[in-house]
Design a protein that fits this description.
Layout lengths: L3 H21 L2 H5 L9 H7 L2 H32 L8 H6 L2 H4 L7 H26 L6 H8 L2 H11 L4 H5 L7 E4 L1 H4 L11 E4 L1 H26 L2
Antiparallel strand pairs: 1-2
Helix pairs in contact: 1-4, 1-8, 1-12, 4-7, 9-12
Length: 230
């Protein structure tokens, strides 16, 4: 049994998703309606520095998502190897789950548990889907896929492995994507250091960008399948 092929493919999809999300995410749209600062003055200044804001805020968030996703997948593979359900490694999985990290802290325990169960269900389907791959001897993803599946089943695998926004769509109001911004890290000039740090809620834009990115990456992955089995 090898994990290398599964990790190889998953990292590719995660990298594509992070890059697609970065392209889709609009800092200016995220700043709309925030009302930060007296009369929106701070927002106006941030809008003039969207490139810096993307470097200081968006890119680090996406890199954290990428790292968490890969580490979480490694935990799933450990459960698969030991023939255990993902629920047996729930604590480790949730430590690396970006969506769980973004849950509104004011959720009731019952509501939080409902979201967590939805997340674990997605992760279980992911683990079940990659079992035939990790049982192959190949160390590269696509050779393992071609030997483990026919084209139809490979397309089904893509639809299982790539999508990740299901819990977000089904529990939209349970999430609060926020980031703390220190204007001194983004704005230039002698007055920047005197401005107070602010919290930016970018939930709406995060949801929009991730859903569009997901559709793009699923489409690309299906095209990959067609090319591999051509």
């Amino acid at each position: 049994m090898t994990r290398a092929a599964a990790v190889d493919g998953f990292e590719t999809f995660v990298d594509r998703t992070a890059e697609a999300t970065r392209r889709e995410f609009s800092v200016e749209r995220a700043l709309r309606g925030t009302g930060l600062g007296p009369g929106g003055a701070l927002v106006d200044r941030l809008r003039r520095h969207t490139d810096a804001l993307e470097r200081q805020v968006v890119e680090p968030e996406l890199e954290a998502y990428r790292q968490r996703s890969v580490e979480q997948f490694r935990v799933i593979l450990t459960a698969v190897k030991d023939d255990r359900p993902v629920g047996a490694v729930e604590t480790e999985l949730l430590e690396h789950d970006s969506m769980v990290q973004a849950l509104d802290p004011d959720l009731t325990p019952e509501r939080r548990r409902a979201v967590v169960e939805d997340v674990l269900g997605r992760l279980q389907r992911l683990g079940d889907g990659v079992v035939p791959i990790v049982e192959r001897p190949e160390d590269e993803f696509w050779p393992a896929v071609r030997n483990a599946f026919d084209e139809e089943r490979a397309r089904s695998l893509v639809e299982t492995v790539v999508p990740f926004t299901g819990p977000l769509r089904r529990h939209r109001d349970a999430f609060a994507f926020e980031v703390r911004i220190d204007p001194a890290d983004v704005l230039s000039g002698p007055l920047a250091g005197r401005l107070p740090a602010v919290s930016l809620d970018y939930t709406d834009e995060a949801v929009r960008a991730m859903r569009r990115a997901e559709r793009r990456v699923v489409h690309e992955a299906k095209s990959d399948v067609a090319e591999q089995f051509d």
